[in-house]
Structures are given as structure tokens and as C-alpha cells.
């Protein structure tokens, strides 16, 4: 599986998954779950103000007959109702609707009905980039601002699980930096080296970690050969790109979306079930791809 | 001037500039200066081991008859000889050949014959990106690891000078971050806001600064409109992209080069004359574009 078409094929081969949507009266979110249903990616349970959900659905000519709608007018209550469906196993993944991120995350972290696992939460963005055979898993471009070394271990573990679910048996993890050598004046390079050692010592498993790496040595085999990197485990063939902090990650993420030819999808991980937290500015296809990515991960978690 | 073709036209209209090359016995550098000469971008003075320069030139079928060659066998001495040509006004810009970056920068900073100005040195990368009407000036993606607020003022001043030289009368400067709002837990956003205020107060001039900005709001007018940013001075129309640190800058730089359709060129600024410090992995066209960018800046400095 090295592109989104392959991922969608894989999803269709799984048992149908269900996404519970918190505060579902949002046109873009309804369009995405309708497309997900039509393409056999996932079913949806729509929790929110039923009148408004029907009103929004009518405005986009959406037929709600195939969807379960649960009427909860209050946003906080709607989110808790939706997340409880996932918590109780009645749905397989959890999606944000017309509720602010803070309120949505509060429901994700709710001690009684939420999706806490004790693991750190982190964001994974999956990219198909024109000209590249592999897909890239970017982490963390949206959730943890300045990850500590311990946070980075958690981010790697979460992202490796997603990669495994996507069929990458032993993903290559590149802790990125501006340079590919350890520089004591650049903490990101020191931590990248520590992560590499922890992987060699068996403290980080299920993957191969090799850093610090510059972006070109991580993703471009030709650049890696040209620079003559020897004795490295990653030579332009990274699967997972680990960013030093949220600024580097987010700016790179948006650079890819706005300047390269890409397809992408994102989920929040470290939770009992995958969480879909797309933003207003994400495209329709990105929202659908995110549901598909969540479904693949939910399938792996159900095994 | 909104692409490299325009920049090359502008260079041809200027008086011919001369580049002094330090340790010129490098095939890629000789190819670039030969192309620069053929395209009327710049002449070159080649300083280094003359035997080796002739040998390398022969290996790439390069005719040296139009070039002044100065025979200095020792690399350190060759660099000092070359930089002195620029220092003394016998050449207009200074270029790195087959010498390590450290040794090359030592010559740039030499107190007697170097190119110090008292201003901080910083790196400027100019990008033409397919699909965008404007060119983007990225700073600093290669020189200052973790710029302080004061460094950022210096980087902006240096980069604004380059933008002016390229015909952008009042460049829009976007101090980038993961988010577009000030967050006290994210120093990059606090500093971006401070830079904006300093610009409003007249401490940073010749440009419009507006930050913090996320990458999409900085470069993509459609994304900026979609997110409904109001009261901002930059709405997807930034010229200068200021990065929070070298990791964010360098990873973005390499992401652009390796995933988008771009043309680019880079120089080191803050010096008495523009310095060309391309790396081995830069393409031939990038090296030629860098000479052209340096020539435009040298022309402006000569006024």
C-alpha cells in the first residue's frame, strides 16, 4: 500500500467501521461522512442538534436515511454522547463536528466516557506526494508544541502503530533536523541521536530509527546518494518524519499541502480509538482520507 | 520581477559584475561560472591551484580563455586572495569553491581583507514556486541556528535589502509559526508579535511585518480568505518568510526543493558584498541562479 487508492482498497476489504460525529451539524463534515458511506469507507452516527443536522443536510442535498441521528442539543453533552459510543464499542472512531477543538478534546480526555489510554496523544499526518513511491507519516505537526525526548518516544510509538496498520511492517523513522550530524549546540540533533540509540538498544521497537537527518537525506534517495551518506540505516527511504517541534512540523505540513502535488489525511492517536480532528481549512478529500486512515487504524486495533 | 527569468533579464541590463571564486578547482562551480559568463550574468576571477583549475576545466571541456586565473596553491591563502579582490572592489561578489564552509567563512570574516560590516550575517533563499505569482524570500534556512529577537531584526533587515534589490519596493514579511495567534507558551509567536510592533513603531523599516502567521495564511490568498483572517496586513501575499529557527527553515527549504516545482537561488548577506555559498547538493541551475541573485544585490549596493 503506497498511495491513498491502495489505502481505500484496503479499507473496503475490512468489516465496515462506524464513526461517531460530535456536533454533526456542519456541512463540510456531513459531506465527508456522506462520501465515506458512498465509497464504503465507513458508516456514521450523527450526534448533535437533530433539527439543525436535518437542516444542514437538506442544504447540501444529503439523504440522511442511511444514518443514525442522535438528538442532543447541547454541544458538550453531544460530544460526551458521541465519544461514549466509541468508548462503549458502539462506534470505531470519533470525529469532530461543529465544536471548538478545546471542547472536543475535553470529551476525548473525559475520564469516564473518553478515550484515554495513558499514552501521550499525538497527531499523525499521512502524505502521498507526487514523484515519491512511498507515503510519508509526519508527526507531530499539530498537537504537541515542544515535545520532550520522552514525548518523542511516545510520538514514535503512536506513529509506528499507524504505519503498521497501513501495512508498513518495519517503518523507517527519521528524526529530522537542519543537519545530519550531532551538534551539541542543537538539542534537536542530540535528541535525534538519543532516539536512534534507544532504538538500537531495544527501547523503541517495531521500527528502525536513524537520526539526525536533514529532509533531503530522509526522503530523497538521489540526494542521499549524492551526499554520499555511508553507514546510515535511512538513505532517502524514510517512512516516518519526526519533527523537532510543532513549528517545523506545521510549516512543512502546510508547505506540502500548498506547494506540492499531494493527497493527505490526518488522525489523532494515542487514544483507545482513532480520532478525526480535521480543520476547517482541510479540503473535502483530506477529510475523507482522514476517515479512511482512521478506519484502517481501527481495524488494526480490533484485532 | 516575479520569476527567475525576470531576474536574469534585470541582471543583463546591469553593468557586468565580477565574482571572485575561492579555491576554484571544482567542476560544479566551474560549470556554474561558465554558464554565468555565457548568459551575461557575471564574469569570474578564479583563484586557486592553477594547474588543478586547468585540469578540472579540461575534464568538463571548459574554455578558460575568458577567465582570469590567479594561482594560489594553499586553500586558506587562495580564499584570502579571492576575498581581498572583493574587499578592494576588484570583484563584486565572493563565491565558495572547493574549500570547506568553515575555512570559507573564516575568509569572509577576516578583519583585514574580509567582508564584515558589523551587521549579523544571514542566509537568504529566493524561490519561484509553480502556481504562485510572487517569489518568496526565505530566511534564515542555513546560517543562524536559533535566532534571538535581535538576530531576527537583523535577518529581516538583510532580507529586506535583498528584496529591494530584486524590485520589491515594500516587501511583506511574515514571521512564521505553527499558529497565527500569540500564544505565551510559544516563544516564536511572542517574538513574531514583537517584530510586528517594532515595524509599526518604525524600528524596522522598508517593509510591512505581520506575524505570527501560519504558512498557509502567509502564502496562499485562498487559504487566507477561507480562514477569514481579518485586520491582517498579510493575506496570503507575503514576500519574505521568516522562520522561527534553522530546523523549521531548513526542513521547509528542502521540502520545497524536493517535492514542489521550484527554481531557487541563495546568498549570504550582511556582508560588504554578496556571498555565494551553494552546497554540493544544490543543482547546477540553483548555482547559476545564486550568482544572478548576488549580481542583482551587488548592483544595488554599487548605487
Strand count of chain A:
11
The percent range for helix content of chain A is: 40-55%
Indicate the multimeric state.
homodimer
Based on CA inertia axes, which overall geometry of chain A fits?
elongated
Separation, N- and C-terminal Cα atoms of chain A: 19 Å
Mean pLDDT of chain A: 96
> In angstroms, what is the radius of gyration of chain A?
19 Å
Largest interface: A-B, 42 and 42 residues
Tell me the number of helical segments of chain A per DSSP (H or I, 4 or more residues long): 11
**Strand ordering within the main sheet of chain A:** 8-7-9-6-5-10
Strand content of chain A: 15-25%
Low-confidence parts of chain A: none
What is the chain-wise order of helices and strands of chain A? HEHEHEHEHEEHEHEHHEHEEH
Structural class of chain A: alpha/beta
Largest sheet of chain A: 6 strands, mixed
Amino acid at each position: 500500500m503506497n498511495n491513498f487508492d491502495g489505502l481505500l482498497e484496503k479499507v473496503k476489504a475490512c468489516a465496515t467501521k462506524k464513526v461517531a460525529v460530535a456536533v454533526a451539524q456542519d456541512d463540510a463534515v456531513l459531506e465527508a461522512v456522506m462520501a465515506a458511506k458512498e465509497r464504503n469507507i465507513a458508516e456514521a452516527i450523527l450526534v448533535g442538534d437533530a433539527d439543525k443536522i436535518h437542516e444542514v443536510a437538506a442544504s447540501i442535498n444529503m439523504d440522511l436515511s442511511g444514518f443514525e441521528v442522535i438528538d442532543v442539543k447541547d454541544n458538550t453533552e453531544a460530544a460526551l454522547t458521541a465519544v461514549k459510543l466509541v468508548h462503549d464499542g458502539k462506534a470505531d472512531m470519533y470525529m469532530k463536528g461543529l465544536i471548538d477543538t478545546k471542547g472536543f478534546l475535553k470529551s476525548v480526555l473525559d475520564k469516564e466516557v473518553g478515550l484515554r489510554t495513558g499514552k501521550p496523544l499525538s497527531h499523525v499526518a499521512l502524505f502521498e506526494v507526487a514523484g515519491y513511491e512511498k507515503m510519508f507519516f509526519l508527526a507531530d505537526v499539530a498537537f504537541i508544541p515542544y515535545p520532550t525526548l520522552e514525548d518523542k518516544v511516545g510520538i514514535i510509538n503512536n506513529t509506528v502503530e499507524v504505519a503498521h496498520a497501513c501495512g508498513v511492517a518495519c517503518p523507517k523513522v527519521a528524526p529530522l533536523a537542519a543537519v545530519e550530524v550531532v551538534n551539541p549546540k542543537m538539542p534537536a540533533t542530540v535528541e535525534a541521536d538519543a532516539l536512534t540509540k534507544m532504538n538500537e538498544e531495544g527501547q523503541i521497537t517495531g521500527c528502525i530509527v536513524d537520526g539526525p537527518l536533514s529532509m533531503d537525506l530522509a526522503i530523497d534517495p538521489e540526494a542521499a546518494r549524492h551526499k554520499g551518506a555511508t553507514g546510515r540505516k535511512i538513505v532517502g527511504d524514510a517512512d516516518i518524519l519526526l519533527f523537532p517541534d510543532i513549528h517545523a512540523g506545521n510549516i512543512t505540513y502546510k508547505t506540502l499541502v500548498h506547494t506540492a502535488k499531494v493527497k493527505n489525511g490526518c488522525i489523532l492517536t494515542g487514544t483507545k480509538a482513532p480520532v478525526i480532528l480535521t480543520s476547517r481549512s482541510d479540503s473535502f478529500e483530506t477529510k475523507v482520507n482522514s476517515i479512511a486512515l482512521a478506519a484502517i487504524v481501527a481495524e488494526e486495533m480490533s484485532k
